[in-house]
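Hi R.,

As promised on Friday, here is the backbone we talked about, encoded as C-alpha cells. Could you run it through your design pipeline when you get a chance and send me back a sequence?
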C-alpha cells in the first residue's frame, strides 16, 4: 500500500512537471525552441507504458501507475497539440 502511494505521488509530481512548460507555451505562444521529435518520442514511450498500465489494471494491480501514466499522456498530448498549433 505504501509503495502504491509513493508511486502515485511520484507520478503526479512527474506529470505536473510539464505544467510550467505548458504555461510558458500558452503565455508566449512560442514553441521555436522545442524539439517536436522529443515530444513525439515521449508520446510513443508513454503510450506503450499506458498499454502496460491497462494490462496491470485488468489484472487488479497497478492502478496508481495507470492513473499517473494517463495524466502524463494527456499532458504530453497537450504539449504536442500546442507545438503543432504554434509552429
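Update: got your reply. Pasting your designed sequence below so it's all in one thread:
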Amino acid at each position: 500500500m505504501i509503495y502504491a502511494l509513493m508511486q502515485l505521488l511520484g507520478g503526479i509530481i512527474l506529470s505536473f512537471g510539464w505544467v510550467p512548460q505548458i504555461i510558458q507555451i500558452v503565455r508566449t505562444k512560442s514553441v521555436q525552441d522545442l524539439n517536436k521529435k522529443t515530444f513525439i518520442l515521449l508520446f510513443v514511450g508513454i503510450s506503450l507504458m499506458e498499454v502496460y498500465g491497462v494490462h496491470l489494471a485488468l489484472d487488479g494491480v497497478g492502478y496508481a501507475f495507470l492513473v499517473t501514466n494517463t495524466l502524463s499522456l494527456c499532458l504530453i498530448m497537450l504539449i504536442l497539440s500546442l507545438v503543432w498549433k504554434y509552429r
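One thing I noticed while checking it: The radius of gyration is 14 Å.

Thanks again,
M.
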